[in-house]
Structure formats: C-alpha cells, structure tokens
C-alpha cells in the first residue's frame, strides 16, 4: 500500500524526493534485504531539526534495521539517507561524528565503571583528557549517576544502565540522536525514568529518531510519527492528526442531572450531530458518547444542548488509542502490550 | 550541569579522516579499557600467570625424569622452557577470540562501530594488550625456569627468542580474532581453539624430541610451526645450534598467517552487523 493513498496522512505529500528544508535526517526509498526478507522496503521519512520523530511498528517491522542503516552499521541495498547533510553510505566517517546511538540493548561496557565508560567514549571522540573527564562527570551528574560513578556498570539496575547508555550517546553533542526502543524490557517505573530524561533532552532542543513498539511511548515523547509495518511506511504525520484522521474522536458528555441523559442523546440525534454513528448512553458513568469528526461539530453539539436548556457537568473528547490507529492502518494488531489507554482531553466544564 | 547540555554546537566536521595521532589516541583509550578489565577481574590474568607456573612444574617433574633421566632434570628444563615459550603465545592468543566474541554479544561493538574511529583500532588495541599478556606469561615462565635451574648461555639470543615467539603469537592471534568474529558464542570459540591447539602443541618438539616419533608424525612435526619456534628458541638461548632454518620457517609461518588471516579478520570485523 503506497503511503500517498492514505489521503493527507503523510507529511511527505507532494514531492518525496525533496528534503524538507529543516530536515536533520532525510531517508528516501531505503531498501535492505536479508535473504528473501525485505527488512526495509522503500522507506521515506524526515526528522525535522529539534523534533522527535517516533518510528512505530511491531516487532520485525524494520525499525532496528532502519536505525542500523542510519548509524552506518549496515549498508542499505538501495535508496539513500542523509544525516545533518552527510550521506550515510558515502560519508560514513562524517556521519559518525554527528550521531549518537542508544541501542535496543544497553551497549555499555559492563566491566567498566560508569565514569570509565563515559571517559573512554570521550577519548574516542577526540576530547582532550581533561575535557573528557569533565564531560563524563557532568553527564553522570545530569543522569543522577554520580554516586554510582565508580562502580562497574554490571552492578547497575536496568534503569541506571539505560541512563548510562543515554549519557554515552550524548558525549559528542550529537546533532541527531537515535533511540532504538529505549525502554523495551523495562518495568513501568524505570520506563518513566528514561522518559523523563528523554523529555528533558528534547526540551533542550535535541533532534531524536525514536523507534518504539509502545504506543504510549510514542505518544509521550514524539511530536510526529511514522508507522512502519513489514519494512514499509504505512502512515505518517503529527500524532494527534494521525489519531484524529484514522479514528475520529469520541465526545463524552455528562449532563448535570442524570435524568437528562436520554434527552441529551435524543437531542443530538434530532439535530443530526452524531457524525458517523449514534449517540449512546452509558448509564454506568452517566455520560452520553457521540462520535464526531470535526471541531465545528463539537461546537454545534454544545449549541444544540444549550438551546434545549440542558446543563452540562463535564464534557471531554477522547482520541482513539494508537493501538486502534495501528489496527485500522494495518488490519492487524501491533504486538505491543495493551498499555495505550485513550487520553481524555478536557475541553470544557 | 552547564557542561552537560544536549545542544552544544557540533564541532565542524572536515572530511572525517582520522590522522595518526587520532588513531593512537583511540588505541590508547581502548587499551586502557582492556587494562581496566584486568583490574576488574584479576582472574583473567590467571592464564598468563598460573599457566606457565603449572605447566613448567608439571612437565619438568612429571616428564622430565622420564625423558632425560632422573639425574638430568636440568637438561630437560633447558629443553622444555623454550618449548613452553612457544606454547604460551598460542594459549594467550586463544583468549583473544573469546573476549572479542563477548563484545559482539553485548552490543558494545555497535557503539564502537558507530563512533568516528577507525575500525582497525579496536583490533589493534586488543592485539597490543594480548602481546602484553604474552610478555607477562613469558616473564613468569622464565622466572620459574631459572628457579628450576634454567641456564641461558646467549642472553641476546634469549631476547631474540622472546621476540620471535611474540611475532608468531601475533600471527596466530589473527586466527582467533577471525574465529571470535565468525563464531556464534564464546564457548564455540574456545572449543574450536582447543581442537586446533591440542594436536599442534603435542604433535611438536615442545615437550619431547621428535626423533622417537613415527615417520609420518615427524613429517608433520617438522613443519609444525610450534616445532620450528621451539627449536629456534632453544638454539637462540643456548647459542650453539644453527637456528637460521627454524627462525626463517617460524617467521615464514607468521607472515603467512598474518597475510592470510588478518585481511579476513578485518573484513569480517568491518562487515559484521
């Protein structure tokens, strides 16, 4: 399925061969085979400077292959990619100077202490001894690892290791940071720890390409999303855009007086304001659910209810979960835990 | 905090070429890593320290009498210590593959390969450290040898013998580096190494003169580089046997091993994903 058949959902809309002017990473038609399998089957994407692009897909979708191509670890079979203006195939040495990589498995040296890990990478990045030491100390402090600085990394907890891994990928002030499934296999608390760090890096202006199979993670960290499945981009765009376009929204209305539940529903049906479906009454929560497609419709609903003199206690819109988005895009469920609950957005009370 | 922001400007990138000084700096950082490993678990030096002691004592006292007669143990010390020197290099070289393989399993290698360093410096640092370990093992072996009455009549020859076994160890190391990259697990590397090493070590003149072996085996032992290295080391240390042939044979083996295996190891290493 070509990306452009999903009307208006790709940001690579008009001319896929043109890089967006502010793109830090540009990928065009990237292909990588492993025998018969096409791990990447013509991937196009852009990561704009100072933004986080989430690359979402189930296991085996080609996310890690993509990151490995972009970090010069493997050569693509076709297509091309540039990072900060450098061609990853023809200019691998320059590319390596501008990237930071945090792999799926924490790639720190377990036998070395946290400090020695960072110091070594500083030296490998050509920092003078003194600077490498200062940078290591600074990053250890930033990632709350100062107390553990002298202990071998193998004594670290899962979260500490990932934090050390993140610190290691930041030593060279990379123009682009790849986070390849940074929280896979972490418990929820530790995952939050990592998220907090990533959010902080993003707030400071880092450009990040994040792969994940957790819907919730993409929602938390990324501003834009590329959904890939079996090596192909199946959708792309801003997260809220994507969710709105695929599933529409659900409006949840709670009348102040529970006896007005049914009148509320009938009113909306009468006014023809129920979008693609019908208003349904949820007596348990005392709310009426209405599928809506646009902001105008939302406003009209409020107008109709006001005209009938129905007082509202609460009103909220719910976006479909990314799980639902994925399901409707690929026709099959993403192999991620069902952790993506709809996030209600209170719009009025 | 101010030293640790994310968005400090990226240093300008020229053509990304790494000069000699850069390479040396990288190798230095990687050697330091390997030395810190040793400090972390000193057990990793057991092969370099205990091995020469145990083998030297074992061979001198268990086989020495049988081979050279009980009154002639000194002669056997002089015979077996240069032989064990040849063996030491092989045993240390075997470890390089195992350590290397573990690096690939852990993903540290991905980190290295995504850094702007020459991929060869990872290999060279590893080799430098292993050569250092070989020197330690040789020093321990010689110390035990001297305690047991080893006599060296040609001191420059002794250093030449040490140098020669390092050169040969360097050549052998490439085999194990290749195995380390190609093989799936550290255990496989070890098993494979054992399979290669055992016949080479025992089918040689390291422990006993080859004159009592059957003809077909002698044909093998005569070309076994461990025999030529052991014989060369003996000749160099006692200073009154012609060594030119053995030295040249050993150097030839080292050159061939390096010429064949180094490109394979480097190729496998750079393309391994």
UniProtKB/TrEMBL annotation, chain A:
Gene3D superfamilies assigned: P-loop containing nucleotide triphosphate hydrolases
Topology term for the membrane: Peripheral membrane protein
Alphabetical list of InterPro entries matching this protein: AAA+_ATPase, ABC_transporter-like_ATP-bd, ABC_transporter-like_CS, ABC_transporter_ATP-binding, DrrA, DrrA1/2-like_C, P-loop_NTPase
Any GO MF annotation of the entry: ATP binding
SMART domains in UniProt: AAA
Domain of life: Bacteria
Keywords annotated in UniProt: Antibiotic resistance, ATP-binding, Cell membrane, Membrane, Nucleotide-binding, Translocase, Transport
Compartment(s) of residence: Cell membrane
Pfam families (UniProt xref): ABC_tran, DrrA1-3_C
Keyword Nucleotide-binding recorded: yes
Signal sequence, renumbered to the chain: none
Domain ABC transporter: 25-255
PROSITE patterns recorded: ABC_TRANSPORTER_1 (PS00211), ABC_TRANSPORTER_2 (PS50893)
Entry-linked NCBIfam families: drrA
Annotated family: Belongs to the ABC transporter superfamily. Drug exporter-1 (DrugE1) (TC 3.A.1.105) family.
PANTHER family linked to this entry: ABC TRANSPORTER ATP-BINDING PROTEIN (PTHR42711), DOXORUBICIN RESISTANCE ATP-BINDING PROTEIN DRRA (PTHR42711:SF19)
Protein name, as recorded: ATP-binding cassette domain-containing protein
Organism: Streptomyces glomeratus
UniProtKB/TrEMBL annotation, chain B:
Top-rank taxon, per record: Bacteria
UniProt family annotation: Belongs to the ABC-2 integral membrane protein family.
Bilayer topology term: Multi-pass membrane protein
Keyword RNA-binding: no
Matching PANTHER family: NODULATION PROTEIN J
One Pfam assignment: ABC2_membrane
InterPro entries: ABC2_TM, ABC2_TM_bact-type, ABC_2_transport, Nod_factor_ABC_transporter
Protein name as it appears in the record: Transport permease protein
Lineage of origin: Bacteria, Bacillati, Actinomycetota, Actinomycetes, Kitasatosporales
PROSITE patterns noted in UniProt: ABC_TM2
Transmembrane intervals: 48-67, 79-101, 122-152, 158-182, 194-217, 247-266
ABC transmembrane type-2 domain boundaries: 43-272
Cell compartments where the protein resides: Cell membrane; Membrane
Keywords, sorted A to Z: Antibiotic resistance, Cell membrane, Membrane, Transmembrane, Transmembrane helix, Transport
